[in-house]
Amino acid sequence: MQxxxxxxxxxxxxxxxxxxxxxxxxxxxxxxxxxxxSQRTARKLSGLGIxxxxxxxxxxxxxxxxxxxxxxxxxxxxxxMPLNTRLTAHELSFQIEDAACMHLIYDEANGQLAExxxxxxxxxxxxxAEGLSELQETECSLTAYIDAEAVQSIxxxxxxxxxxxxxMLTYGNHWSSAVGSVLNLGLxxxxxxxxxxxxxxxxxxxxxxxxxxxxxxxIIHRKFDPANANRAILEQGVTIMSVVSNMLARMLExxxxxxxxxxxxxxxxxxxxxxRPLLESCAAKGIPVYQTYGMTETASQIVTxxxxxxxxxxxxxxxxxxxxxxxxAGERGGDALPGEAGEILVRxxxxxxxxxxxxxxxxxxxxxxxxxxxDIGYLDExxxxxxxxxxxxxxxxxxxxxxxxxxxxxLLQHPAVKEAGVTGVADERWGQVxxxxxxLREDAQLSEEELREYLKDKLARYKIxxxxxxxxxxxRNASGKLLRRELPAxxxxxxxxxxxx
Amino acid sequence: MQxxxxxxxxxxxxxxxxxxxxxxxxxxxxxxxxxxxSQRTARKLSGLGIxxxxxxxxxxxxxxxxxxxxxxxxxxxxxxMPLNTRLTAHELSFQIEDAACMHLIYDEANGQLAExxxxxxxxxxxxxAEGLSELQETECSLTAYIDAEAVQSIxxxxxxxxxxxxxMLTYGNHWSSAVGSVLNLGLxxxxxxxxxxxxxxxxxxxxxxxxxxxxxxxIIHRKFDPANANRAILEQGVTIMSVVSNMLARMLExxxxxxxxxxxxxxxxxxxxxxRPLLESCAAKGIPVYQTYGMTETASQIVTxxxxxxxxxxxxxxxxxxxxxxxxAGERGGDALPGEAGEILVRxxxxxxxxxxxxxxxxxxxxxxxxxxxDIGYLDExxxxxxxxxxxxxxxxxxxxxxxxxxxxxLLQHPAVKEAGVTGVADERWGQVxxxxxxLREDAQLSEEELREYLKDKLARYKIxxxxxxxxxxxRNASGKLLRRELPAxxxxxxxxxxxx
Lengths: 501, 501
Known about the structure:
Protein name (chains A, B): 2-succinylbenzoate--CoA ligase
CATH topology of the domain at 394-500 in chain A: GMP Synthetase, Chain A, domain 3
Pathway (chains A, B): Quinol/quinone metabolism; 1,4-dihydroxy-2-naphthoate biosynthesis; 1,4-dihydroxy-2-naphthoate from chorismate: step 5/7; Quinol/quinone metabolism; menaquinone biosynthesis
Strand content of chain A: 25-35%
Oligomer: homodimer
Pfam family, one (chains A, B): AMP-binding
Largest interface: A-B, 27 and 27 residues
CATH architecture of the domain at 394-500 in chain A: 2-Layer Sandwich
GO molecular function, one term (chains A, B): o-succinylbenzoate-CoA ligase activity
EC number (chains A, B): 6.2.1.26
């Protein structure tokens, strides 16, 4: 990759102008049309003051417009901040302020949420996506060459501290991710990638880049629905789909006795561990599941297990893509031996250079050119990666990352809460859900319902604990560190005590 | 692409150890086996004094060993100089001396030629490829990380001056070429590329890199034979084949009424213009021809025409691959208009940084970051490239580049030759062949046979003119520049005069 590249959508529209770029319900756009729409949108956004280097929030549901807006920002050299529409105004405002974002583009479906954010951040300039069609275009020069080193997107992700940090991804990161993926998954001239994961997550955003780089059609589902997803695979020529376990399980249930056509060649399964029975059901139905491991910081998958190993290496997420590397940090420095568990370190041109305005967090995560993921895993004798524990006690619920520390911090803001511990427990539908153990201040009175109500404005719905347990003390080690892994047992005790009382 | 990458063969052998890397007749090697053989060979070559940065000549016929030798040199960080086995000892010696090459690896089939070279360059260390198996391995450290900026190969190509120049290609050039090609041609997990073009040419060498980067099998034919090539496509699951027009025409003739199976998806046609009837025959037979334009300096194809345009854009070589760009230099500086002919300039991460030890030739060829190809062409309204005249009066005979200036220089060394002009004329079998017009010194006597005999040691057989015409003067412009395009007419006149006398 050289540092200057022709704008990807320009290049793609020059190479295959009449190929379909995307299908969003009844709307179909060729690459030529997508380029025209994106450039028109860019000229309108320029008229609203969006300039090179500006961070622009995007609070929109997946759609053709979403894709055009993403490309429009690249034509202006602006930095995209895709926002999770499931977050609360409280959470969104934090990210928007932290990223010094001045413009928020939102769609009708998220209008109320955008207004709530505006209530908290009155300086913010709101731009209604649907309203852009009525605006005049402004003369402005559009980016013809992309700088691979330039930051394309900032996406927020939490960590141990509970405060979300903005992961910077450059054009070069996205490019390398797309190239690494194609060398692993292959590519046909009739490729159709079903995007039923949100485009505001890296799993969805990465499909947008692959589409222009590969010349591939995206089928956009605004909302995941197992029957619709199955219909697209059965009737619309889908060849690849990105899923998390929960989506796949629901699709299998809906699929029943039907089988996918042979052109469907890759079910790319990310976002956390896959249950063994699910993988076995897929194998029985001949569904080609590729398990993957990745995160926002790696611009999507960095390790992938091809289907020929799906059962023989069950539980493994595979091997690092071309150009990417992993290491397991050994206990005594150096690399762990095969089978020995340690922190997973990753390196490659798809890996972030760091966190937005967080030099210290960046320095802590980057160890000699390697990104310390915080996840624990091991490599087997054949070099296959097995992930044992997700980073920083991460809970993955329905494909969304939930950080215990973030929920604990929200609980601790309540005046009656003295201590709080959150962990994930297995859930049939969502894979995992968070539960909370709470120690109240002396003499304080608080019900589960009151706590739930209190959290509603502070946390996205999927982050609110499924159950609350009031306990006398939390399990801690000698130095006072919370032992989250002992919380489930504590919760069971609390439940039994409550039943007996 | 980052600057440091894991060694490609190491990475590939880790990802797909049991996939077939190559088939050479009855010999089949997996990537694991190819890596083992290449590393063993590297340790033996190290024992013979081959070190990082050394230029090593390779005078071998295509084979599994050829591929292993190429990888072995990368493990030592040595620079590969693949040599054309059809050249004379005279021509080879020039290249070997020019590149300061100290080691020449040759195989039995080219033993006599290697000895002749040794006769001219007694300092050269000859290494017999077949003899390596008896040598001991030496302990040495093998390259684990490839530097994308490092020169991987030097391949000689002639120009207007007649003196061949060494084109330097870095690992990054080869990587970018492979990536640009996969984004255009796609990739399947059962890809098999038939290499019946010589591996010492860029068309063959690039297949070696694609094989390790894609995880794809190469089927090696030591010598092109139309029946064997057809048999491989019909019976061995070949999906892609690289050809020049002459090869394709002979394969069509051999094919007769048979048709290729559907898994054969790409006939990659390079090395000069393709005759219209040939393309029409291929279309009638459903053969998916991709016309391409490229040269050693661009690490193989840089512009490719997909088959859907094969007839509607007949005569075009297509559009530049992802990451690559072309421009047509206009007469008044700047870019030519659509339809306006001018010199073809190319740019991209696959383009050479220059010629080995030729700063002046490099500076002349590189104009503001663009490589001036010397070829003349135009872009149509849709951006498709049409090549009108090959660079520097280049003659392409059976896929081999023949430079008139080089043949003229050889002719002028004969004491009886006063002037010489060489050009290409159409030939049914080879596409083009060179012919020579010669002006003898006053009172000199020389027959065609004597001239032919004189050139035998100086020029490869395919460079020796098919016909010689003795004339009184050569066509020149006002400033004395030879007008090669007028030579065919002069030859016809000379022929008629000879018949009448």
